[in-house]
Sequence to fold (1153 residues):
Amino acid sequence: MSILVIAEHDNAGLKAATLNTLTAALLCGPDVHVLVAGHNAGAGATAAAQVAGVTKVLHSDAESLAHGIAENLCAQVEAIASGYSHILFAATATGKNVAPRLAALLDVAQISDITKVISADTFERPIYAGNAIATVQSSDAVKVITVRTTAFDPAAQSGQAAAVVEAIAAVAAPGGTRYIGSEIARNDRPELTAAKTIVSGGRAMGSQEKFDEVITPLADKLGAAIGASRAAVDAGYASNDLQVGQTGKIVAPQLYIAAGISGAIQHLAGMKDSKVIVAINKDPEAPIFGVADYGLVADLFTAVPEMVAAL
Amino acid sequence: MKILVAVKRVVDYNVKVRVKSDQTGVETANVKMSMNPFDEIAVEEAVLLKEKGVATEIVAVSCGVSQCQETLRTAMAIGADRAILVECNEELQPLAVAKLLQSLVAREQPAMVILGKQAIDDDCNQTGQMLAALARLPQVTFASKLDVADGMATVAREVDGGSETLQVTLPAVVTVDLRLNEPRYVTLPNIMKAKKKPLETLTPAALGVDVAPRLKTLKVSEPPVRSAGIKVPDVATLVAKLRTEAKVI
Amino acid sequence: MRYQAPLKDMLFAMQDLAGLSTVTALPGMEDYGQDTAQAVLEESAKFCEGVVAPLNWEGDKNPSSWKDRVVTTTPGFKEAFAQFAEGGWQGVIHPTEFGGQGLPKLVATPCAEMLHAASLSFALCPMLTDGAIEALLVAGSDELKNKFAAKLISGEWTGTMNLTEPQAGSDLAAVRARAEPQADGTYKVFGTKIFITYGEHDMTGNIVHLVLARVPGAPEGVKGISLFVVPKFLVNDDGSLGARNDAWCVSIEHKLGIKASPTAVLQFGDNGGAVGYLVGEENRGLEYMFIMMNAARFAVGMQGIAVADRAYQKAVTFARERVQSRDLAGSDGPVAIIHHPDVKRMLLTMRAHVEGARALAYVAAAISDVAHHAAEPAERASNQAVYEFLVPVVKGFSTEMSIEMASLGVQVHGGMGFIEETGAAQHYRDARILTIYEGTTAIQANDIVGRKTLRDKGVVAKALCGRIAMTEKDLAAHNDADCTAMRLALSQGRAALEESIDFILANGKSDAKAVYAGAVHYLKLAGLVLCGWQMARAMMIAQDRMAEDPAFFNAKVVTARFYADAVLPQAGALAQSIRQAGASTNRMSVDLF
Fold:
């Protein structure tokens, strides 16, 4: 039986999260298909066909699929679900939105946020904010899975001759849900969950102005994404899509710099798998120093600009 | 308009959980339990809708052991009008809970079901979506703003990189995210009033639902331990180490 | 680390030691069983931890201030008090007839403890308001109750207790404030009152002052004092606020601690006289005060337990994190100081005293509930007598120990403890007032000697010793090393207490000065032994229930054992000093100091 990955894409190609998901998919089985569902999503389909290990791409195109509306995407996947032993989504907002709905429609369990594929039916996933790892086994005929993208390397693009792209009919939209609009932060920064380097600020920043003033130059110098602790977001110093934590974004960059972040359990849950963690905090007892590879006890308002100058 | 709110009794978010030495699970005996924080936000939203005159009745539901009654009493102290406990001592996974909720939705016919987006114990983030599928209802997840008028809900939801707005016809399932509201502190008079509100106890068998778990937990283990780091005396040393030792810049 | 209400220990003390089920069996108390108590305590904890505790440090750094007769409280206090009122927490213990929740004292007491622990300064406002409410309900006319009680209970207004004057502190006979009767039945009040907690503030629309004053022709001394309601704003018949009354705050004090609590000098009648309403009958003011004084003294005792616990929690957190010196038993490198025996000793001392005092206070609260609600008058009376014996012990012992425990808290922190930013110093400074106000320790001691031991010839005191003896029998039946050690320590402690009771009874009249020289030690001895008694009971229950929660009950057994080993032995020394030191105290003539 084959493995199906539900791709996330924009008009230019595949989103990074899908590449990580493909790696997980290949660990489940050798015959991996990709569903690219969207509106004018041809570029996504082409890109998917070129990823190493993909044997087939299904391309469904319709206006109703333009915005990833759960009911519509779900109906589309349900229509082609038979014949697949595994259906994987990236554990993004979209994946988390759609996968459980699909699983219930297929009357199977859904396995959220897997961090390891042990075998075709056994997976590891974090529970209790990552303070414990559960190894779970599914006996359902179809495994519907969301993949924690930071736990898998991205599959190589342009690694093979293009696989077959098959156009499939778009399923009629169930109706009842209307897309009104979006407010997506547009900037040149790398996306938080895929960034190689992240610079995060905490409540010690004291204000939105200071947050931007202190964090931005360092992020710019390092080509980094910007993150924030929940406390900083709650205080209004950073927007909520920057929140790193158990219930925000889970990140695992090569380098995570936490400035003025104390390191509450919930924040650590979001970043403790980073390869290298740097903590800058003037409180030597701050819990963040317990996970930091390099800890600098200093006033961030002095240390961070100093670091920008030194780089 | 009737609203159904689902609440879960979980290990309190302040507790640092410990993995049992036999790796069968996490130590939960004698550990402080509370309402799942996202569910508090869900109940609060329902109560706000009632205070605005949009909702007329709020029914709180919980599935699990009999102590879930405490969680339901808290929901009623926040402002739910009555509660239903589906009592069950076995492990309940999201699909089973969704099926139990579906049978209650069929029974109660609410215009909206509000749930927290994820439970902080299993971190699954599935129940609301599954319920929507089973009940054939539209779903809006990770709601950060909710307006209800003329049989429709206009909802802003948190997505990667920002937010998007959807409009759904009711009845619908909404799961709530952190920034939707700030739950109120429960007042003493409302705690006492909640004791008199009706709490009905049902069972999965009575609802005709098979709640057998689908996923088998083979083991629960500690996460990999990071090796201890070092403190650096100044920025210059930090930059040097990141460059030459860690090689990340 | 933030303050966390110790709900497990509070519920244990309530249910297992104080007997919550006995209280809920009383007529009218059926609604307040375990589930309710737990729900109430949990929500109270959320509020105290989330809203009040974060303001404690702010209150110390940014105390209430006075300008042009107006007091501005610490930023955040006003909003917090509004939330407190909205939460219905002022009315916890007050009658439902006036909008309160009518909870038993046993359930209200942990709520008060948490509030005090969260911020002693903040909690003083509701505490004094409780006093004003009690005074009104005990002695006020229906008219006064209807006008003032409900709004005090709802937290819409606050209340103050105005007793002290520059020349009248412990000695209320010296009160000089006067009240002149007017034709319409009201009075005009003149005088200066000092040390008035929350005498002026910006948190509510009105403040209701309860004021002690003399009417013309009143008898000399304590039998000539009357009690008046003097509101900051007069209140119209429809409940709305009327004219500003002639009661003004002319200054607030700069204090060692509880800085955010505005301690006012109130001037009544500088501009023609403050309108006052007589509470009850003329010349019975002090009698009414004494009725509500039990509640006020008990509340201060709770303050002691609260601040000691707060200091303890902070000290434990620090001791776990601060790394200094190798382990005496051998270690690779330095360890957290909590591993060092002396630090453990300090922390255990704090813990043992907090748990013991908490247990005794909650037991007293339950006795008070029985005294109020039991069906049989005889049962009510006998419980009231025991409660009245315990009140000065709860106040005097818990407050004296709180200062010592807060000091230990500073000590655990080492040099950082002396630095204000660490926060340990604030608890030490805040605690210092507790042995002084609401009746100094000496006043409590005089009370326990004079009114509570001599007057009934030691009957209640000896009866309590009898109950301790029964616990010793239970300990003998348990027959393990811990219970044996506790039994021996407790019986020695009880013997010391009985010996001291006998000494007081024998010499109270013939050598009053010698006896009263030892009064504070007698009070401490009583507290030491009575708290030890509760720890003994706790030890046995913990052993019996060990399997249910090994971590909690094991800690309880060890803490109780420490109480037996390290705290109870002090009893003998106290008894000796009670017997002996009166003579040398008398011998030292005043001109030799």
